[in-house]
């Protein structure tokens, strides 16, 4: 089960957030921004301190209650999926979300890159994929 999706721009700003199941603890809009900025910073630090050359930073984080999976594009956009621990194929799902982002957001002539995403077709297709 996928709980939430966050899309973070290359500067660490939250440009998209959506919850896919009811009953989740709701954060304020400011808390979502802090969460995105914090993850962006931790991701950058882990890629720098890794003993492996050209490390991509955190790609997944697992707790007793949930999994967080990150897919970073070549342009620095990060797609974060929060799911339950039993969810499989998270790398494939994040790549499919990236394809939807390309099809419905980047190809939208009214979208300005790095800005918050407001695209109804993107929302509809994400809901079909993740619910």
From TrEMBL:
A single GO cellular-component term from the record reads:
Golgi apparatus
GO BP: any one term: endoplasmic reticulum to Golgi vesicle-mediated transport
Entry keyword annotation includes Transport: yes
Name the Pfam families for this protein. Answer: Sybindin
Mainly localized where?
A: endoplasmic reticulum
Q: Which InterPro entries match?
A: Longin-like_dom_sf, TRAPPC
Alphabetic keyword roster: Endoplasmic reticulum, ER-Golgi transport, Golgi apparatus, Transport
Q: Record's CDD domains?
A: TRAPPC4_synbindin
Q: Which residues form a coiled coil?
A: none
Repressor as a keyword of this entry, yes or no, is no
| Oligomer and partners | Part of the multisubunit transport protein particle (TRAPP) complex.
Family statement: Belongs to the TRAPP small subunits family. TRAPPC4 subfamily.
What protein am I looking at?
Answer: Trafficking protein particle complex subunit
Q: Which organism is it from?
A: Conidiobolus coronatus (strain ATCC 28846 / CBS 209.66 / NRRL 28638)
